[in-house]
Amino acid sequence: MTCSRKHSTQSALTRRQFLTATSSLLGASTLAACAGEPSATMQATAVRTTTSTSNGETRVVEHLMGAVEIPANPQRVVTLHDLSLTTMALHLGFQPIGSHGRIGANGEETFTLGEGLSAAGLTHVGAFNAINFERLLTLEPDLIIGRSLEAPVYEELSAIAPTVLAPNEVSLDSIAFSAFVADLLNRTQRHEEFLALYEQKIALIKALVPNPQEVYVTHLFMFDAEGTILMQGGTSPIDQVIRDVGFSKREAVREMENDYTPGATGDNFYRLSLEVVPDLDADFVFNNYFKQGNNLTLDSSRDIENGPIWQQMYAVQQNQYINSNGGPVGGNGLFFLLNAADLIRAHIGERGFVTRAGGWD
Question: Which of 248, 255, 251, 282 lies closest to 270, judged by CA?
Answer without folding.
Answer: 255
